[in-house]
Amino acid sequence: MKPALQLKLGQHLALTPQLQQSIRLLQLSTLELNQEIEQALAENPLLERVDDPLGTVLSLGADGRIDAGRSTLADAALQSAAGPAAAEGSADSGGDSEFDGPPAGSEADRGDEGGPDHDAQHDWGGDYGGRGSGSGDEDEPEFAQVAASTGSLGDHLRGQLAATRVSQRDRALVTLLIDELDEHGMLPTALDEFQAALPEDLEIEAEEVSGALKLLQSFDPAGVAARDLRECLLLQLDRRFGDDGATRSLARRIVAELLDTLAARDFIKLRRSLACEDGPLKAACALIRSLEPRPGARFAPEPASYVIPDVVVRRNRSAWVATLNPDVVPRLRVNSLYAGLLRSSRSQGGSNLTGALQEARWLVKNVAQRFETILRVSQAIVERQRGFFSHGAVAMRPLVLREIADALGLHESTISRVTTQKFMLTPQGTFELKYFFGSHVATESGGAASSTAMRALIRQLINAENTRRPLSDSRIAELLGDQGFVVARRTVAKYRESLRIPSVAQRRTL
Fold first, then answer.
1. Fewer CB within 10 A of the end CB, N or C, for the chain?
2. What pLDDT is recorded for position 440?
């Protein structure tokens, strides 16, 4: 065959840089969005941020002192608990024209019309009220509270060792044992392995290592340096002098001989093995539950994780209304000075600034579009889940992404991006937007119930059960069937496990 050239016409979709940025911003969380904006502010001189990220924490008083400010999120929570919200935020009194939120048909949605001065005179996001207030008492200003620092377990034990009169040789052994402890205060290394790792020229005997371990186990907190859970509990029981002697002796026997039976909650076997009544056995079990299985836990507290909601839901007269949380809405605009210079300048460097101006416009527009889409999706969720906001999780109805996508004229992938790592503050608590979507469970009447509502019903049944005779998964399925829900035992077990509720044997008590 001879080579030949052919022309063909075809269509294909291409993602412009502006569209790619819009999609990327839409799927970012609030923290990731702030990081993206900070990077853009550092790289683009034509972009500036009007609001102060720390304005929700501290505000400068009239006398020049720093007072603790109350965030508008706290005001929103108080208003939602008290009733309908009174008034929304107020606009700035400055020279620039600003607006609150991204209303439909705003300048951010009209493309890149207008010159640099037009972009410079509008920034996205309004100046909401409640940014900060004085303490009311000028003599005693309020300050933001800072969490107190906690020393490590090793420092705590070494401090006790320094106050103990021991030989230098024993002090060195105890110090090495402290270094072997894990984050829970347990000693995972066997003593023979520990002794074998020591230099042979020191001639450390096993009795010395055992004595150093006993000295370390006498320190605070009780149970530290234990080699397993049983030894940890026994060490704590030996130092519980304020409890009843008979109860402590019975608890010590349970831990030493029948700990596995107690873990299985086989109280019948416990009574038979111990030959005791329910009263003393119940007191001994309560004493064991009061012990700490991880002695070093309080010296390594997990950092508290905070969720900043993107949307706040309030009751407005007879309807539930979703509004954007102003504390997470950045106020961006194009720098008016640079934009004016760029318009009047025809220098050689103007082409580079033109690209920076275009990127600044794109970012301002895409950030506005991001929050507008979040607000639209949130309001659509609120309209379909009114029962949840009024009555709780038991009134949750089935909802899928396609239903919201069809109602708003968006693609399912867009709804998925919007509902990922975006949170909503409601009178029922703070939830990720994905929480309001769930599969359905059939009912005898031919309708459907949400799986979230089914989990709430299962939790209610278990919370109201007799702990001496807890409900099995089969019995729970029967009780739900009496209420008209067609649920299999395996489905009940799956929902129970997702709620992290123990099995019927683990929930049984005396």
1. N
2. 67
Please check whether residues 40 and 109 belong to one and the same domain.
yes
Instruction: Give pLDDT, residue 338.
Output: 78
For 99-140, what is each residue's pLDDT tens digit?
A: 344 444 443 343 444 444 444 333 444 333 333 333 334 444
Do 477 and 378 share a domain, yes or no? no
Tell me, yes or no, whether 235 and 341 share the same domain: no
Q: Which of 332, 367, 384 is the last residue of a domain?
A: 384
pLDDT attached to residue 419: 93
Give the dihedral of Cα atoms 150, 153, 158, 163; nearest 10 deg. Answer: 70
For residues 466 and 361, membership in a common domain is answered with no
Neighbour-count burial of 457, counting CB atoms closer than 10 A to its CB (0-12 exposed, 13-18 middle, 19+ buried): buried
- Cα separation, 324 vs 322, in Å, equals 7
Specify whether the CB–CB gap between 208 and 173 falls below 8 A: yes
How far is the CA of 497 from the CAs of 251, 456, 473, 491, in angstroms?
30, 13, 11, 10
Instruction: Note the Cα 306 to chain centre separation in Å.
Output: 6
Q: Of 235, 267, 299, which closes a domain?
A: 299
Q: Are 197 and 223 in the same domain?
A: yes
Sign of the Cα pseudo-torsion (254, 255, 258, 264, in order): positive
| Cα→Cα distances 377→31, 101, 404, 440, 453, Å | 20, 15, 7, 21, 21
Q: How many domains does the chain have?
A: 3
Place of tokens 């009220």: 129
Q: At what angle do helices 206-217 and 168-180 cross, to 10 degrees?
A: 70
Which pLDDT score is estimated for 96?
42
Establish if 124 belongs to a structural domain.
yes
pLDDT of res. 81: 38
pLDDT single digits (tens) 218-234:
999 999 999 999 999 99
Rounded distance, CA 421 to CA 401, Å?
A: 15
417, part of any domain: yes
- Short-list 292, 154, 296, CA closest to 236: 292
Q: Which residues of the chain have pLDDT under 70?
A: 1, 12-14, 52-150, 301-304, 346-352, 440, 442-448, 510
What's the pLDDT score for residue 445? 62
325: containing domain: 26-57+88-130+308-384
Residue-level pLDDT at 443: 67
